[in-house]
Amino acid sequence: MTAPTVNSTTRILRPNSIAKCIEQGVYTAYEEERFLKIGTYHTGSSADYGASILGVFNVSERALAELVPLREFVGVKPGQEYVVRAYPSEEVSPSMGLDDDEFPLVDLRLEEKGWGILIAVPVQSFILRANTTTAASAHEVDDGNKTHIAILGLLHKMTGAAAVVGTPSMQLQANGRLEISTTVKALGVLGIYISSLESWEGEWGEHVLVLMRERVVPVHT
């Protein structure tokens, strides 16, 4: 839950709201054979961005598997799409929302005394030059041509989404390129979910330019 900074200090990646039991007033007993869930929410400088963090614990006496509904994540909103990142596996779900025709669920299996953290982050959709011949706004084409993008926060951290400061900016340029700008309060591996990455032609480095403090970061790093 900590990460180093450029000043050789350590920052705690703490969400800016207090974590609470999802089922308020309900005690999860050993014999119930279901997960204990603790939820919190980390928001940016505006209500447009926020990451929902769900700590899941297996308090039973055997391994359990459960389908965790998206509605159990604190702060998720109708009309907004999300992807869910799991820690420590670092697996990322497809984009999902509360308004989906299919009930949005996250499949999770934990061994006896096991635990995991699920982090739901909001998704934005764009038409990029990498997967279309012409630039277009997301509402002008069908869902199959959209690229879903989300800022995951720092990877390999329990609460990596809490490293994001303020609200990430995503702006589609006239040439079909997408400019993503975000600020993190500590050093680490910044995760960005791009749904169409596997369909891009050539190496992904041919389509991406990364800058840090206005200096280009080499692809090999």
Keyphrases for this structure?
221 residues; mainly beta; 6-stranded antiparallel sheet; 3-stranded antiparallel sheet
Low-confidence stretches: 132-141
Counting DSSP E segments of at least 2 residues, the number of strands comes to: 17
Termini Cα gap: 24 Å
Biggest sheet layout? 6 strands, antiparallel
| Classification by helices and strands | mainly beta
Order of helices and strands: EEEEEEEEEEEEEEEEE
Beta percentage is: 35-45%
How large is the count of helical segments? 0
Overall, the morphology is globular
Mean pLDDT: 85
The percent range for helix content is under 10%
* Widest beta sheet: strand line-up: 3-4-5-10-7-8
Q: What is the CA-atom radius of gyration, in angstroms?
A: 19 Å
Characterization of this structure:
This protein has 221 residues and is an all-beta fold. It has no helices and 17 strands. The protein has strands at 2-4, 10-12, 20-21, 36-43, 50-57, 64-69, 81-87, 96-97, 105-110, 115-122, 124-126, 147-154, 164-172, 178-184, 190-194, 211-212, 215-216. The strands form six sheets. A six-stranded antiparallel beta sheet has the order 3-4-5-10-7-8, with no helix packed on it. Strands 11-12-15 form a three-stranded antiparallel beta sheet, with no helix packed on it. Strands 1-2 form a two-stranded antiparallel sheet. A hairpin with a 6-residue loop joins β4 and β5. The protein is globular and about 55 Å long. Mean pLDDT is 85; it is low at 132-141.
